[in-house]
Write a structure and sequence with these properties.
The chain has 252 residues and is an alpha/beta fold. It has a single domain, classed as Alpha/Beta hydrolase fold, catalytic domain (Rossmann fold). Helices cover 33% and strands 22% of the residues. It is built from 7 helices and 10 strands. Strand 9, helix 5 and strand 10 form a beta-alpha-beta unit. The radius of gyration is 17 Å and the shape is globular.
């Protein structure tokens, strides 16, 4: 697996001269540019995975997650979606950092952030070595953004872990034509069971939308080392995600 440093994301597709590092210079819709961490499999080739950060930003934990997906054969891009607030925000789980994270989340413009995701998807689809198949995957805020990538960005698949606020965005679900996988915890204080029930009912007649509930799991259940990590739920969700991602390998 090869990991590149953060690189500016580009709609212009300016590549490096003869190396494996992509230089992507993308103008945001309101000016400026944003970066993405890129991790590749040893082969340099594979389906693309756009990994979307939660309210802690594109931190080291997420980059480690990207490296693990790269080791499984994906070309992974992790865009810095908080760049309009401040480029390079990376937070941990201390009380002070969590306070900052919630403040940044309140400032985050979801629509503009989704535009940045769409730009990243376009870059990912055209990168040398990728198959043209792109999945969006995220946790928490990133879980909601993965859903929006399905409704707005034309991804080939989307995976959301405990996406906060998806029930408020069901009005645009008709625009999603790709397979979607959603994981929720039954004891999640940020995604109440009533919201999960609403999402499940809405997609009851959509077989391409797969929804799983982990009854005892809380918010953040898949993050090892966190207070609410639930290994049984995390392992099951990971297996289901791995099976689901074969949509990309098969080109569907």
């Amino acid at each position: 697996m090869m990991a590149d440093a953060k690189k500016p994301v580009s709609g212009a597709h300016h590549w490096g001269d003869g190396d494996d590092r992509q230089q992507h210079d993308h103008q945001g819709s309101d000016g400026g540019s944003f970066s993405a961490y890129v991790a590749k499999p040893a082969s340099g080739k594979g389906p693309a995975l756009v990994l979307l950060h939660a309210i802690l930003g594109a931190n080291e934990e997420l980059r480690d997650h990207a490296d693990r997906f790269a080791a499984q054969g994906f070309v992974v891009l992790v865009p810095d979606l908080f760049w309009r607030i401040a480029p390079g925000i990376e937070l941990g789980t201390s009380e002070a950092d969590l306070k900052k994270a919630f403040a940044y989340s309140d400032q985050f413009d979801v629509d503009k952030g989704t535009e940045d995701i769409c730009a990243t998807v376009t870059v990912a689809r055209g990168m040398p070595g990728t198959t043209g198949q792109v999945c969006a995957l995220g946790h928490c805020l990133g879980g909601k953004l993965a859903y929006l990538a399905a409704t707005r960005c034309g991804v080939n698949a989307a995976v959301g872990y405990y996406g906060v606020g998806i029930e408020k965005l069901l009005g645009e679900s008709h625009r999603a034509t790709c397979p979607i996988l959603l994981h929720f915890g039954g004891a999640d204080r940020y995604v109440p069971i009533a919201a999960v029930d609403q999402i499940r009912a809405h997609f009851a007649t959509r077989p391409e939308v797969e929804i799983h509930l982990y009854p005892e799991a809380e918010h953040g259940f898949s993050s090892a080392g966190r207070p609410f990590y639930n290994k049984a739920a995390a392992d099951l969700a990971q297996r289901r995600t791995a099976t689901f991602l074969k949509h990309l390998e098969s080109g569907r």
